[in-house]
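Researcher: Here's my situation. A collaborator sent me these components and asked whether they could plausibly form a single complex. I don't have experimental data yet, so a predicted model of the whole assembly would be a useful starting point for our discussion.
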Amino acid sequence: MIDVQGLTKVYTRTREDGAKALDDVTFSVPDRAIFGFLGPNGAGKTTTIRILATILAPTEGTATVDGHDILADPLAVKASIGYMPEYPGYYPTMTAEQHLDYWGRFYPMPAAERRTRTEELLDMVGLGEERTKKAKAYSHGMLKRLGLAQALLHDPPVLILDEPAGGLDPYGTIFFRNLMKRLNREGKTIFLSSHILTEVAQTCTHVGVIHKGRIVAAGTTGEIESRLSGTGSTKALIEAPHVPDSALRGLLTVQGVKDVARVDWGLIVTMDADVRGAVNAYLVSQGVFVQGLKLAEVTLEDAFVALTGGTPA
Amino acid sequence: MSLDPRHLFKGALVVARRDLLANVRSIKVVVLSALMLLIMVGAAFGISGLSPTGPSPANEYVMWPFAAYGANNTSIAGAAVRVTNYAGVPKTDLPVSLGEPFNPADPGATFRIRATNTTDAAGWTAFASLGPGLWPFQIKVGQYTFGNSVFLGLTRPNDTFVLLQTQFDVIGDGSLRDIGVEAALPDGRPLGNLDVSIDGTVRGTTDSWGFFGIRLDVGTYFLNVTYAGQTETRVIVVHEPTALLPFQLGPDFVLFFVAYSLMGIFAPIVAIALSYDALSKERAQGSLELLLVRPASRTGLAVGKFLGTFLSVGLPVLGVAVGALAGIAAVTGKWPDAVFDAAFLLGTLGLIAMYVLIMQIFSTVAKSSGTAILSAILVWLVFNLLWNLVYVLVSAVLNIEGGTRAAFDLSTLMLLFNPTGVFQLTLAAYLPSSLAGAVGSYQLPDWSGPVAMLVWIAALLALAVLAFKKKVV
């Protein structure tokens, strides 16, 4: 549905160090996926999104959205996407209705259809009762809802949403999450960016991680998690009430064990690979009573930290 | 980004429509238009109403003295006086004094009141049994004193009626265009319902009090009134105006002043005030990004922004301009020259288009509204107040001495590089013949103004589109 090929963007003036905002970014988003585009602030998420939305031209590379090339046929791309910026723009003196009517005029939509669609969407995003209020009286959350309504106006197959949950209260977050899932069930491909891991983990079927303008991982949410457990560090949680210091030191000699930490309920063993069998055998051989031994579940948060080599913002 | 040429202007009308509606509803447009209308119409009235002396009180108090011979007594006559204004409206309850008759032995004698009567509802009064002689009358109104006199003969003349005729300088330009006649019977009573013909055509009848008034254009006329077999003829000459003030030069000159001086200054102000933030505002409120993601071309969006602002300024200003024309027509009683009217209206729209486009380019390039405001003030100053300074700098650079032919040619040529100058050149090109020479000779062909205006607009529009494509992110 979205196919990104070697996107590179260099802002000539804004970056003194000449660093590339995007460096050879390649990934794809399958049809009907909810794709979470994850990365710390300044990683290049918004730049990528604006290029996909044909607002910004890439320095190199290209992408196709719904089969249309963003460079060769930007109008077709615009027609097949619904776009919501992080801070959706608005005309202060226009009401929600007037906004949707205005944006709707850009699409081949008769006036009657524009009216019914406006009504439907404002109800859907929960602005039904505020439809005749001027936008300058709206809260941030209401503006986000209006932003989403305008993105859905022409019923596009692809939604591109920049930080849709950013700045929302818990109710708003849940509302947006459920709406994303609902729209996805109805057949829409959703591309959303976020720096909030939990949001992506809970909503998305696919994840791409961007860091300093480069894609560091992309795949299904599960793949990203297991990729980490396959190639990176794996942690074993060992429930054992009494572990002598000698056994703890000896554990470090077991092949594949990198680090051992003592906690009040036992040990956390960091391993290059899953060498739980050897760990267990050694501990038993040292007379340690092992009550339980399991692999730590790797979360997106772990993956993110491991992949970006830093702490999530 | 390559584009199907059919989609080149896609979205332009949608954008233009919103901007027009938003602007027209804004208080800014209403206030600016109202202010401008006040200035224009006020100026039109002010200039048109100018006269060298102002309305003369002499036109307001006109004495029509007649001899009043008795029907049987032919030797002892009285006198009758009607007092009206120039239009024949009677002055009622006004004291009229009769003086002692003229004494040839004492020609310099001052007016001594012999009797005073008060005019009736017709503005008429009479003095009986006066005898032959030249009898003076006087009325006093505030600080003014008006006099007239009537000659009473020894015998009653054979006339069937008497016709008095006067020309008034109501307009104040010395042309004496307002004509009044007053008819009376030999006994001094007003004679109404007489046909008055001018150059053989009946133009009206005297009212029941004997008065008929008409305003004539410059020319020579024969005025005839006939009663009971007697025809009175008067030759009336309406002069060319003697005073050369704006009004005397007619509605064309008033329009010329309004267009050349007022519109040239105020239309750019309104245009700049409404367009300086056309794009920087959309950028600041984030709506620009949502605009860019619509299936519309960049060219279409840029052209749409221009059209929207242009119409928002152009329509109200056009209304103001038509209002100014109507004001001129109302005051002078005549519409200015049609070709000049058209040049004024179209030239004004062109002037607005140029300033709107200049500001759109600045607004596109400016990173903040502050920069946009600053650029707006600068643009207006440079093209309107500081242009002479620019001229001085250019002539210094070109080493052209002031007051020479070359200096004059340079200043003329430089008009082509100033939107306001181009506007003035365009007006000059369509100046009616009555105003030839009013702006001096520009030494440039007539087509240079309008052509320069079109070139300016086309170039600025191209630049605005280009700036939008390059700068808008």
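Model: Some features of this prediction you could bring to your collaborator: The interface with chain A takes residues 1-4, 7, 10-11, 14, 17-18, 22, 25-26, 282, 285-290, 292-297, 473 of chain B (CB under 8 Å). The mean pLDDT of chain B is 85.
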